[in-house]
Write a structure and sequence with these properties.
It is a single chain. By secondary structure, this protein is mainly alpha-helical. Among the domains are: about 1-205, Alpha Horseshoe (Serine Threonine Protein Phosphatase 5, Tetratricopeptide repeat), CATH 1.25.40.10; about 365-419, no CATH class. The protein has helices at about 40-45, 55-70, 75-85, 90-105, 110-120, 125-140, 140-155, 160-170, 175-190, 195-205, 210-225, 230-240, 245-255, 260-275, 280-290, 295-310, 310-325, 330-340, 345-360, 365-375, 380-395, 400-419. Helix 9 (about 175-190) packs antiparallel against helix 10. The termini are far apart.
Length: about 425
């Protein structure tokens, strides 16, 4: 039997959603595992006397293993927990803590095995079900993860973490209504649970419900005023609502808190680009490239800023650099094509649009732009074919504005043909 003072790390693995908010998205990182240490941990370990071969010794190894886990020394923790389990093979807390250490080392199969053993020993261990769910999530075994979180909730309906984690899993499966329901429940249980507000904000952003997203990110900031990523994400939502002043303010604050947040430089550059403050946009894109020279999109964006300033040679150099790094980056071809079109180099523009369409055959805008180049060359038949294709794609994508615009352009084209 496990003694009353056996330490079980009350570490709840709380994931942060992995949504990518395109085109200005940040792959929001998985938040660190939280290991909640018992306040009396050190005092209690000092009082333990080692008597070889007894359950008390197993407890001691468990305490020591837990302590090393708290220090991030997971290999040492596993070695000590192995000894605890060798002495007492039915020591559920030791399996649980070893599962945590394996999880931190990204050895998820081993973590699942240990959590499974923990719930075999103690079928009411909701935290073990929760953490096994996290390991299953990391292995993209989403249905198994949902089953584990549901089991954890059955063990304790007032346990907020599995609601949050199940909500994240539903988000991954694009079951947004269920995800929001789980985040709502987590918040109901724990009104100061910032992760649940944050993750619900991600879902609202994905659903283009930007005002609700802003309210959730604002709540996160009220709870944790130093949360740079929430300022950043709120800035993105501000931008979608065209609140440029608020957008820039949020990016500025996020960078003050975390100067390494490269995406904030990129997105602030996008905002300056929309405001036609091209020099400021260039400065931000250059900073983003300095921080992450491998990010192709930053070169493409810097090329756009140069093109807006009519510095076409520099713009072409940026797009060529982007294509050196990724020859299949369609946006670089499309933007280079647009610049050739602006310079009345229509044949070169068409060549670039050909490549952009080859890489992304479902882009209505690429067909429209190539059609525009054909029209400039008086090749009305080719222009009509491209615009008809663009209109068809807009219709498939439920873009009524784009479809109606193309219908008007096709009518004008028909008038030219009939003359």
């Amino acid at each position: 039997m496990e003694g009353r003072d056996s330490l079980k790390l009350l570490k709840v693995i709380t994931l942060l959603g992995t949504l990518c908010l395109v085109p200005k998205g940040i792959n929001s990182p998985i938040r660190a595992v939280e290991i909640r240490e018992s306040e009396s941990f050190l005092a209690r370990t000092r009082k333990i006397h080692i008597n070889p071969g007894t359950v008390e010794t197993a407890q001691t190894y468990n305490y020591r293993g837990a302590f090393h886990a708290l220090l991030g020394q997971y290999e040492k923790a596993i070695a000590l927990l192995n000894q605890a389990i060798e002495i007492n093979p039915n020591y559920g807390n030791a399996y649980y803590n070893r599962g945590l250490a394996y999880g931190k080392l990204e050895q998820y199969e081993k973590a699942i095995s240990d959590y499974t053993k923990a719930v075999e020993i103690n079928p009411q261990d909701g935290e073990a079900y929760n953490n096994r769910g996290v390991a299953n999530f990391q292995l993209k075994q989403y249905e198994k993860a949902i089953s584990d979180y549901t089991k954890a909730i059955e063990m304790n309906s007032q346990y907020e973490e599995p609601y949050n984690n199940r909500g994240i899993t539903y988000t991954q499966l694009k079951q947004y209504s269920r995800a929001i329901g789980d985040f709502n429940k987590a918040i109901e249980i724990s009104p100061q649970y910032s992760d649940a507000y944050y993750n619900r904000g991600l879902v609202y952003s994905e659903l283009k419900q930007y005002q609700q997203a802003i309210e959730d990110y604002t709540k996160v900031i009220e709870i944790n005023p130093q949360d740079a990523v929430s300022y950043y994400n709120r800035g993105m939502a501000d931008g979608e609502l065209e609140s440029r002043e608020l957008e820039l303010s949020d990016y500025e604050t996020s960078l003050e808190m975390n100067p390494q947040l490269v995406q904030a430089y990129q997105n602030r550059g996008h905002s300056y680009l929309r405001l036609k403050e091209y020099e400021k946009a260039l400065a931000d894109y250059s900073k983003a490239i300095e921080m992450n020279p491998q990010e192709v999109s930053s070169y493409v964006s810097r090329g756009i800023a140069y093109a807006k300033l009519k510095k076409y040679e520099r713009a072409f150099a940026q797009w060529s650099k982007a294509l050196e790094k990724n020859p299949n980056y369609g946006s670089a071809y499309a933007n280079r094509g647009a610049a050739h079109n602006e310079l009345k180099e229509y044949h070169k523009a068409i060549t670039d649009y050909d490549k952009a369409i080859e890489l992304n055959p479902h882009s209505a805008s690429y067909y429209y732009k190539r059609g525009n180049s054909y029209k400039k060359l008086q090749n009305i038949q080719k222009a009509r074919e491209d615009w008809e294709k663009a209109a068809s794609l807009f219709q498939e994508q439920n873009n009524d504005e784009g479809y109606n615009f193309l219908q008007e352009q096709l009518k004008k084209l028909l008038e030219i043909e009939e003359k």
